[in-house]
Write a structure and sequence with these properties.
The protein is mainly α. Helix content is 47%, strand content 10%. Helix 5 packs across helix 11. The chain is globular.
Length: 399
């Protein structure tokens, strides 16, 4: 199977114009691909070098996963990346789409949105190769066909121009549309119990990050960049508190928006204890960090760290309990909103509850929150368990 090595940054001497005054070109390291038989994959690596050093792409995680999966498919089926038979569906790109991505999406092994994203990365790779003459094609031998498709115009003047035409390829994967309620995927009562039980066995940094999502409704990046300054403050141990997050204290909120979020007294105490812990000091190795959560190397916690740990947590829940746990970290935020809204609605003040949750969640559109109201009206189990989230987390994690 193809494997990836993250190369180091290098200095490349300038050849033209030739002068002793010219400084060398500094190139950042990039994900470097090798085949299963240890061959340097030149076209792939040139593309990633372009993404890192020309495009200055910030996050290549999905592109790396997509190309690694594609190359593993090519190796497994003994296919060449640059050979395209006359029959369209014998070409490696179409076989990858149909035999791997679509097959796995239909079986539930991956999401359709993931399959669509991976296919898009493969298409972009081939487009770059063609544009830079790394791949020569003709009408009978090419990786895909371009086509024009109509897209519905959702802008303000859509009554005058209901559709517009865009260029796409015949390799695109359509993501099935979900109803607004189907798009919500909060954890059920049983899932919260199993989740909390397994979470308590993980490292304190991951536990705090997860609690900030499921107990305070933060997005993944907001939880990762929670500021040390807020955690160091001494709060009352009796009530929930509100704190402000946003660019003013280094939190990477969506659209750079400042907002208030609530913290339970137990979570605030846990964060304060960790902020002053020897464990955190050892991880920093004498350095300073404005963020509360740091890795064992002293670097700020990242979404990649969270996804890796959440994947292990998910597998542990499934193997220990013989169930499917079809959730992602963003579902923790949906769980918080669902159960917290149920708690507020218990008082019968629907409009005030929705307004308050909009503020805590950072939603601009009230319609987003009304989806949760509709969801609650259909789910009697959650209606009857308004304090469930607090109770389970208190018993399984905070003790």
């Amino acid at each position: 199977m193809a494997y990836v090595v993250v190369s180091s940054s290098i200095s490349v001497p300038r050849i033209h114009p030739k002068s002793s005054l010219n400084k060398p070109i500094e190139l950042d390291g990039f994900p470097t691909f090798y085949s299963a038989d240890n061959q340097y994959l030149l076209p792939v690596n040139l593309w990633f070098n372009y993404l890192v050093n020309i495009r200055r792409s910030k996050n290549l995680n999905s592109a790396v996963r997509a190309i690694k999966r594609y190359w593993a498919f090519l190796e497994e089926h003994d296919l060449d990346w640059d050979v395209f038979p006359p029959s369209k569906f014998l070409r490696p790109t179409y076989r990858f789409r149909n035999d791997d991505l679509l097959a796995k999406a239909r079986s539930g092994d991956i999401q359709f949105s993931t399959a669509s994203l991976y296919m898009l990365h493969v298409i972009k790779f081939y487009e770059w190769c063609i544009a830079n003459r790394m791949l020569l094609i003709d009408e009978r031998s090419k990786p895909f066909e371009y086509e024009m498709i109509q897209v519905r115009n959702r802008g303000m003047m859509n009554h005058l121009n209901p559709h517009f035409v865009v260029t796409s390829t015949d390799l695109r994967i359509k993501v099935p549309k979900k109803s607004e309620i189907q798009s919500l995927n909060p954890l059920t009562k049983i899932e919260v119990e199993l989740y909390a039980k397994e979470l308590s066995a993980f490292g304190i940094e991951f536990v705090i990050q997860q609690l900030l999502q499921i107990h305070s409704g933060l997005r993944i990046e907001e939880a990762c960049t929670f500021p040390l300054s807020l955690a160091l403050e001494a709060y009352s141990q009796n009530t929930n508190i509100e704190v402000t997050i946003g660019p003013s204290n280094g939190v990477k909120t969506k659209y750079g928006k400042e907002r208030k979020v609530e913290l339970s007294s137990r979570l605030a105490a846990m964060m304060n204890s960790y902020a002053n812990s020897i464990r955190r000091q050892k991880r920093l190795k004498g350095k300073q960090s404005p963020y509360l959560l740091v890795t064992k190397n002293g670097t700020p916690f990242s979404s990649n760290n969270v996804h890796q740990s959440f994947r292990r947590l998910k597998l542990k829940i499934q193997s220990q309990n013989k169930i499917l746990f079809k959730h992602k970290t963003h579902d923790l935020r949906a769980s918080y909103c669902t159960y917290r809204l149920a708690s507020l609605l218990e008082n019968g003040l629907q409009k005030d509850a929705v307004t308050q949750m909009m503020a805590w969640m950072g939603h601009n559109n009230e319609a987003t929150l009304w989806k949760y109201v509709d969801f609650l009206e259909r789910d009697n189990n959650i209606q009857k368990a308004v304090s469930l989230l607090d109770q389970i987390l208190e018993e399984a994690v905070y003790e």
